[in-house]
Structure formats: structure tokens, C-alpha cells
């Protein structure tokens, strides 16, 4: 727009300049012709009477030139007005406006002109006598408003054309931008949902490079989807297959552990065997839970209106023993309303109580596992008009900023997690459970200071 404005400005100036050059040339030609006529009068008069007589010369010259302009004037070499004709009529008296500078310049030998505000052009040119002296100045006045009207028309055409051009350029740029950005947005949206492992079909109704790119993305999405499904199915099958033999191993280890009372060393080994088979059973159960999520739609889960204060209280009681082992205290901060003696506000959410307890227990388990002995864990329950907010805050080892996202992936464990055992599945299971009930999880953490995991659920 700016460069276009500069071009229009330059064209406008150029039109002004060349138009004036043209009009100046026209006036000079006219002045030349008038000068010829004037000199003719001069020479005729000299040949008839010998000595030039100014009055007579002026009269004759005016007679000849009176029609050559709106006004015609003749001055002598001392800038005195000798004669004047207006609209072709010779006038003896009158006090016209005189541009003295122009007359002086003409007496100096060159032409000069002035254009007034009402578009009248005063053009003065010198007339030489037989001795090549600038004896007279001939001045004519021309109305050049026709020229200004013409210029205005040219300008109007120029600006109207430029306006039309700008509108056309803007519309076509918008059209081009829309046509190229719209499909790019579609592709970008597809790539973003792929990164969230949502593999939807990508289709663009076009045969150009963007269309080909969409087709390629679509193929890629399909293959990735199939591959991930295959992997999940594989893990699910293996977990299923392992479940029965593992139950047998656990049963036998339990038996051996309980039966062996004499050999202390052997008793210790059986205890270890029992502990490990418990860990493996938990892992297999979690893997099966995840694969159940992968397969099931949310409608297959039993959901009921559950009071969250009660649920949290129960989880904390269940985890109490584990916390006590490390000398960790768990404090519950419930949402209260009104004076102390009033009953605790009941906060309901539509969840599956068993799964929800599992999720909260997982988070409390993490808080215990990744905290030092004798530290404190706080479980807060708050609510807004539409949400239930549960926070589990610990004073543990914390999670590095660049790992906050990754710890929610399956099997990912942070670099500082070797202080405790784990398989890296707990958080991803929590995330899936909470998402099933239309909620989400948020983690805030500071390395070495502590972690706060927040569950937000819609209130019912
Ligand atoms: N409260 C916490 N404090 C510090 N680090 C945490 C906390 N909670 C989770 N993490 C980090 O996130 C990782 C993933 O947690 P997640 O619960 O998924 O796995 P895990 O505890 O290692 O194993 P699992 O829960 O399957 O037994 C952990 O390994 C740990 O590095
Ligand atoms: Mg865990």
C-alpha cells in the first residue's frame, strides 16, 4: 500500500510537471508569433514614416494582436503601460494588475509568466527594435482553467484506477491467502492431533502439492494408528497370558514363604520372591487396566454420582500404613462452608469410584515414594460452581521442568526417580482415568522442593 501510494504521488507530480512544460511550450510559440506580428508593425511603420512614433505603433500593434489573448498589453522600456486590449477591444484607460517582476524580466531579454489563483496566465515577452534593443514588452493574459479541469480529470481517472486496483489487489491477496492458509491450517491441525495420538483422516479436495501432502499425512496417520493398535494389542495379549502363571508363582511363593520357618536364609529368599511376584502382578494389572481403556469407549465404564470428600478420606486411610512406614503425615484439607460447626459441604462428581480411588491412590503413592522420611503430604479438596479440584502436595524430590510433560507418558520415569521402585505407569493411568470422567491433570513441581498434582473434574 505504501509503495503504491509513493508511485501514485510520483505519477501525480510527473503529470503536473509535464503538463506545465507543455503549456509553457504552447505559450512560447504563441509569444513568438505575436512577436513576429509586432515586429512587422514596427518595420512597416519605420518604412512609411522614417521615425517610429510610439503611440501609433502601439495602436497598430494592439489592432493586430488584440484577439490573441483574453487581455493584451504593451509596455515600453521603462515598464510603463502603453496600451491595453480586453476581450478584443482596445481600452484607453484602466488599471490592470501588473506583475512588475515579469515585465522587468522581459526587459532583461527573456520571457516570464505568472499563474494566478483563478487560473489566469500572465505571459510577458520582450520585443526588440531595429537596434536589437528590448524596446517593448508584449504581455498577454490567457485563461487556462480548461487546462486545470483537464488535469483534474486525469487525476480523477488515475485515483479511481488506483483505488480499483488496490481493491482488486486486496481481494485477490485475501483470496490467495485464504486458499493457501486454509489447507495449511487443516494439515497443521492434523499434525497436532497426530502428536496427541489422535489419528483422524486427512483429506483435501485438491490435486496440487498440498493435496499430495494431505494424502501422504493420511497414509502416515493410518499406518501409525495400525502400528500403535498392534503394539497395544500385543502388550494386552502378553499381559493376559502372564496373568495365570503369575498367579501360580505368587501362590507357590506365598506357600513356600509361610511353610519355611527353619532356614532363615531361605525364608528371606521366599519373602523376596513373594514381593517381586506382587510387584509383577501389580504391573500386569495396570497394563491390563490401560489396555481396557484403550479398547473401551467411556460408555462401557460404570459411572455414579460420588461424594468426593468421602472418597479421598477412604484413599488416605488406605494409604495410611504406607505413609506411616516412612513417618510421613498426610493432612486432608476439606472444602468447608459457613461456620465451623456446620457440616462439610458435599462435593459430587460423576466417576467410577473404584477407578477414581485408584487414580488418587496412585498420586498419593507417588507423593509418599518421592518424599523424604518425616515430611508432610497435604491433600486439598476445593470446588468452584462447576468443578471439583483435588490437589496432592508433597515436599519431595520434585520433577525437573523439562520432564513435567514426559512423566505422564507410559513407562517414563524421571532421571531422579531411582530413589524408589516403579514402572512409570502410575501417572499415565491417572491421566487416562481422569480423562474418562471429562477431567484433566496438571502437575506443578520444583526440583528439590516438592510437587503438586491437581485433578480437576466436572462437578455434578
Ligand atoms: N510426587 C512426585 N515427586 C517427584 N517425582 C514424581 C512424583 N510423581 C511422579 N514423579 C515422577 O514421575 C515419574 C512417573 O510417575 P509414575 O507414577 O507414572 O511412575 P512410577 O511412580 O515411577 O511407577 P508406578 O507408579 O508405575 O509404580 C516417576 O518415575 C517420577 O520420576
Ligand atoms: Mg507412581
From TrEMBL:
SMART domains per the UniProt record, alphabetical: HAMP, HATPase_c, HisKA
All residue ranges annotated as the Histidine kinase domain in the record: 237-460
Cellular compartments annotated: Cell membrane
SUPFAM superfamilies given in the database record: ATPase domain of HSP90 chaperone/DNA topoisomerase II/histidine kinase (SSF55874), HAMP domain-like (SSF158472), Homodimeric domain of signal transducing histidine kinase (SSF47384)
Record-annotated membrane-spanning stretches: 156-177
UniProt topology in membrane: Multi-pass membrane protein
Signal peptide interval: none
Pfam family, any one: HAMP
Superkingdom of origin organism: Bacteria
Keyword annotations from UniProtKB, A to Z: ATP-binding, Cell membrane, Kinase, Membrane, Nucleotide-binding, Phosphoprotein, Transferase, Transmembrane, Transmembrane helix, Two-component regulatory system
HAMP domain span: 178-229
EC number: 2.7.13.3
Record-given protein name: histidine kinase
Species annotation: Paenibacillus silvae
Amino acid at each position: 500500500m505504501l509503495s503504491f501510494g509513493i508511485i501514485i504521488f510520483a505519477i501525480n507530480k510527473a503529470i503536473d510537471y509535464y503538463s506545465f512544460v507543455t503549456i509553457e511550450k504552447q505559450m512560447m510559440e504563441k509569444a513568438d508569433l505575436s512577436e513576429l506580428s509586432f515586429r512587422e508593425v514596427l518595420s512597416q511603420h519605420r518604412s512609411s514614416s522614417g521615425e517610429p512614433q510610439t503611440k501609433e505603433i502601439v495602436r497598430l500593434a494592439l489592432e493586430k494582436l488584440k484577439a490573441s489573448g483574453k487581455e493584451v498589453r504593451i509596455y515600453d522600456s521603462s515598464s510603463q503601460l502603453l496600451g491595453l486590449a480586453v476581450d478584443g477591444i482596445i481600452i484607453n484607460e484602466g488599471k490592470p494588475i501588473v506583475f512588475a517582476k515579469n515585465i522587468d524580466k522581459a526587459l532583461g531579454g527573456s520571457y516570464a509568466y505568472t499563474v494566478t489563483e483563478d487560473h489566469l496566465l500572465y505571459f510577458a515577452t520582450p520585443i526588440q527594435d531595429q537596434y536589437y534593443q528590448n524596446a517593448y514588452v508584449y504581455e498577454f493574459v490567457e485563461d487556462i482553467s480548461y487546462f486545470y479541469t483537464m488535469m483534474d480529470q486525469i487525476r480523477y481517472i488515475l485515483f479511481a484506477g488506483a483505488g480499483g486496483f488496490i481493491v482488486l489487489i486486496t481481494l485477490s491477496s485475501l483470496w490467495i491467502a485464504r486458499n493457501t492458509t486454509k489447507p495449511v491450517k487443516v494439515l497443521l491441525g492434523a499434525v497436532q492431533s497426530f502428536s496427541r495420538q489422535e489419528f483422524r483422516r486427512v483429506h483435501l479436495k485438491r490435486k496440487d502439492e498440498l493435496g499430495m501432502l494431505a494424502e501422504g499425512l493420511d497414509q502416515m496417520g493410518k499406518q501409525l494408528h495400525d502400528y500403535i493398535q498392534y503394539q497395544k494389542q500385543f502388550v494386552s495379549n502378553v499381559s493376559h497370558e502372564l496373568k495365570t502363571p503369575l498367579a501360580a508363582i505368587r501362590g507357590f511363593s506365598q506357600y513356600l514363604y509361610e511353610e519355611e520357618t527353619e532356614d532363615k536364609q531361605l525364608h528371606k529368599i521366599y519373602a523376596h520372591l513373594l514381593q517381586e511376584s506382587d510387584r509383577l502382578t501389580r504391573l500386569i494389572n495396570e497394563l491390563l487396566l490401560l489396555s481396557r481403556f484403550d479398547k473401551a469407549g467411556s460408555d462401557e465404564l460404570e459411572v455414579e454420582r460420588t461424594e468426593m470428600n468421602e472418597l479421598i478420606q477412604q484413599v488416605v486411610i488406605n494409604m495410611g500404613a504406607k505413609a506411616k512406614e516412612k513417618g510421613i503425615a498426610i493432612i486432608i484439607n476439606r472444602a468447608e462452608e459457613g461456620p465451623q460447626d456446620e457440616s462439610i459441604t458435599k462435593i459430587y462428581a460423576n466417576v467410577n469410584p473404584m477407578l477414581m480411588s485408584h487414580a488418587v491412590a496412585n498420586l498419593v503413592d507417588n507423593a509418599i515414594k518421592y518424599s523424604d522420611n518425616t515430611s508432610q503430604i497435604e491433600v486439598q479438596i476445593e470446588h468452584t460452581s462447576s468443578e471439583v479440584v483435588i490437589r496432592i502436595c508433597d515436599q519431595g524430590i520434585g520433577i525437573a521442568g523439562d520432564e513435567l510433560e514426559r512423566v505422564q507418558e507410559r513407562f517414563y520415569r524421571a532421571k531422579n526417580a531411582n530413589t524408589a521402585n516403579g514402572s512409570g505407569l502410575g501417572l499415565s493411568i491417572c491421566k487416562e482415568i481422569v480423562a474418562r470422567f471429562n477431567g484433566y491433570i496438571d502437575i506443578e513441581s520444583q526440583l528439590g522442593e516438592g510437587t503438586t498434582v491437581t485433578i480437576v473434574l466436572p462437578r455434578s
